[in-house]
Amino acid sequence: MAKGNTPSTFLFQPRVSVLAVALIASGAHAAEERAAQDTATLPEVKVSSERETADSYTVKRASSEKFTAPLLDTPKSVTVLTEALIRDQGATTFEQALRTVPGVTFGAGEGGTPMNDRPFIRGYDSSSSTFVDGLRDLGSQSREIFNIETIEVLKGPSGAFDGRGSGGGSINIVSKTPKAENFVRGSVGLGTDQYKRGSLDVNYLLTDDVAVRINAMAHDADVPGRDAVDTKRWGFAPSIIFGLNTPTSLTLSYYKLKTDDMPDYGLPLTAASQGPIRRPVSGVSKDNFYGTKARDFRETEIDAGTAVIKHAFSETASFRNVTRYAVSKNDYVVTNPDDSAGNVPNGTVWRSSKSRNSKTESFGNLSEFSFKFDTAAIKHSLNTGFEYSYEDTTNTPYLVTAASSTRICNATLLNNYTCTSLYNPNPSDPWLGTVVKGPTTTETRTQSKSFYVFDSAEIAQNWIVNLGLRRDIYSTDSDAYNSSTRVRTKLDSGAAFWNYQAGLVYKIQPNASVYIAHGTSSTPSGTSNGDGTENLSAANMNLDPERVKNNEIGLKWDVLSNLSLTTAIFHTKKDNARVTLADGTTLALDGEQKVKGFEIGFAGAVTPSWQVFGGYTHLDSELVGNGPRAVDRANNGNEFPGIAKKSATLWTTYNVTNKWTVGGGANYMDEVYANVANTIVLPSYTRFDAMSSYKIDKNLSLQLNVLNLTDKRYIDKSFTTHFATVAAGRSAMLQLLFNY
User: Fold this and answer.
1) Max alpha carbon distance in the chain (Å)?
2) How far apart are CA 16 and CA 30, in angstroms?
């Protein structure tokens, strides 16, 4: 545990909240006088009405109160995926939903980096910058969509909004909560590859002010085109709200997701001896699975309880508190088809293993005030708050011992199934080795205390200044103990840092604005708390946080009845990136990285019958300075790993008649380098999807989705030099949707 800190530290917050009330009280009189005024430029509209997304591809306002203005007047790139968009596309996982966001790519986990959702935004890993209802959701996992209302993707450094990390952006998942209506919704689906899925969404008003909502899901399917790979999961998410139509409300919710999958690390890469540019091995079937069903497994489990208190002092002043406790488990043994021993040129693959058995417990609390007031002729919409978080991750990887200790495949290793054929692997091979609990357990603890303030100020007609400032006090430590050698290794680090967001918005007209903005982020050592990519080590624990800065110019325009158009030009720079010094072990903050580019986006209705969503992103990245060693200097000028220079997405639906809707889309991804040397290349691809739905009556409809329509067998992600994962092949699923 961090020095001088215990979980009980969060008890400081009630005192802070009382202090905040006292500070805000001085502005209460001005706020009350303004309650009856018309605030056309920065309107205070109920979030529930602005975020009604049942059949829409757009929202007007982000869920977080830190966004003190509508998205149209917020000087930042934000892409929102609505429930309707996710449903129409047939997505069932968080990763599938994010596939439609241009500028987002995905990375794979291996050993120290766990198997989990690992999105990259504008070239930076954002797996530790994913949030649920505004609180960091750190435990490594593969998320579901059954309890998601919207997914908000913030692009560009977001340290003022989210704290540590978020160099390229962050992602916030908005959960489904009780509504002021009665309904029963859901689906039952069957499809190819043994696809079976059912979902249920029930909302019921117990009284005028009390409502309950229950979301549930069960899913069982093979992965199309991947031998022996399957997914099984179920989820349950009940919630209840007290005080639905009163100034004070309390929402209690619980989230449970349990999975049981066959993990898949895809295909080996070509051996280095085959040339300077490495790609997935040619001539090998994309169906090949190199694991063994007798050994490999992956089970995850997430339990989270959340309490949200809201109180409206008046029409212009309110308070909100969010508290969450969550436990996330990630347990697996997976085969890595690694060719570090040079087996692939000989037509064989060594069944290397990677494993994890981790548990992350997290506690988070957010208390914030939002209010409107005038200072002279300037109109303010302000949000200020305090956050506390505590995370504890324990990981004890397995000790996997094969029948033979050598890695160079020969007849003996093929006969005892330690190795397998490159061209014809058998997933049903027996496992003759052992899997036992490993001797080393590592516990990592992280604590953060934060204060922030955001303000949108109408300084003159058509001019809005948007400012955000955040202070984080961060500490982390790890304790690794080997029970065999009785060696204990302790590490600790701490930092305090500021981040800010500043923007100027000019309203061209009521439905259009241009902006210029500057934002920062800070990534201290150990940001992922031992459950992601950014882990604490002896080499980085004494370093200051890395800093990312971003300049951006953009245009936002709401046209027609409900169509949002956006475009932005940006330049992101990190001038204190970590590099290795000449001794080969010491790290210093002497590197430089930069990304510049532009993007366009569109979402909404072209006509009442025609909806569209998509965009284009162009990214020019450069590893400017990689350190003084010759091996690192050789990479100067290379592109970022895990980033596509060009990416584009399009999804559209059209109501042919009142009952019949057709839709489809395309995703294009440029080639992606998998390593800093730019010697491993994942080829570019274009993928197509299609859907059609038919309304049987006002309550029932059928929806057919065909995913990966042309059965494009592309590589969707890689982990440096080891392996490349294969995207699912073509699949079709037919759902009966009901809504009463």
Assistant:
1) 86
2) 23
Residue pair 206/234 in contact by the 8 Å Cβ criterion: no
Q: What is the pLDDT of residue 276?
A: 58
Residue carrying structure tokens 């936002």: 556
Q: What is the DSSP letter of 680?
A: B
Q: Look-up: residue for tokens 């325009």? A: 557
How confident is the prediction for the chain on average, in pLDDT?
Answer: 90
Cβ count within 10 A of residue 685: 16
652-663: pLDDT as tens digits: 999 999 999 999
Whole-number Å distance between alpha carbons of 57 and 74: 19
**Residue 345 banded pLDDT, cuts 50, 70, 90:** confident
Flag whether pLDDT at 598 surpasses 80. Answer: yes
Both tokens assigned to 253: 């919710």
Residue 453 pLDDT > 70, yes or no?
yes
Question: Is residue 473 scored above 60 in pLDDT?
Answer: yes
Residue 269 has pLDDT above 50, yes or no: yes
Distance CA 232, CA 198 (A): 12
Q: Which residues pair with 388 in a beta bridge?
A: 365, 449
* Cβ–Cβ < 8 Å for 238, 213: yes
Sequence letter at residue 425: P
Answer whether residue 304 shows pLDDT above 50.
Answer: yes
Of 455, 549, 460, 464, the C-alpha closest to 514 is 464
CB atoms closer than 10 angstroms to residue 275: 10
Exposed, middle or buried by CB within 10 Å (0-12, 13-18, 19+), for 362?
Answer: buried
Tally of helices (H runs) and strands (E runs) in the chain: 8, 39
Cα–Cα distance for residue pair 426/649, rounded to 1 Å: 37
pTM: 0.90
pLDDT in tens, 510-564: 999 999 999 999 999 999 999 888 889 999 999 999 999 999 999 999 998 789 9
Q: How far apart are CA 291 and CA 333, in angstroms?
A: 10
Query: Residue 49 contacts by C-beta under 8 Å, 6 or more apart in sequence?
Result: none
**Cα(168)–Cα(609) distance, integer angstroms:** 35
Query: Token digits for 376?
Result: 């002279």
Distances in whole angstroms, Cα of residue 607 to Cα of each of 146, 560, 600, 652: 29, 8, 20, 12
Confidence band of 48 (pLDDT split at 50, 70, 90): very low
Cα–Cα distance between 437 and 483 in angstroms, integer? 11
Provide the residue type at 373 as one letter: F
Q: Dihedral sign, CA of 533, 530, 527, 301?
A: positive
Inter-residue long-range contacts of 14-23, CB under 8 Å, 24+ positions, other chains counted: 16/367, 16/386, 17/321, 17/367, 17/386, 20/367, 20/369, 20/384, 20/386, 21/369
Task: Return the higher-pLDDT residue of 338 and 626.
Answer: 626
* Distance, CA of 203 to CA of 180 (rounded, Å): 8
Tell me the residue type at 153.
V
pLDDT for the residue numbered 38? 38
Q: List, in sequence order, every residue forming a beta bridge with 470; answer none if it has no partner.
A: 452, 499
Strand partners for 97: none
207 contact partners, CB below 8 Å, separation of at least 6? none
**Average confidence (pLDDT) over 60-75:** 95
Burial, 297: exposed, middle or buried (Cβ in 10 Å; 0-12, 13-18, 19+)? middle
User: Please, which residues have CB within 8 angstroms of residue 91's CB and are 6 or more apart in sequence?
Assistant: 97, 99, 145
Encoded amino acid at 622, one letter: E
Residue from 708, 726, 651, 644 nearest 681 by CA: 644
Identify the band that residue 271 occupies on the pLDDT scale cut at 50, 70 and 90.
low
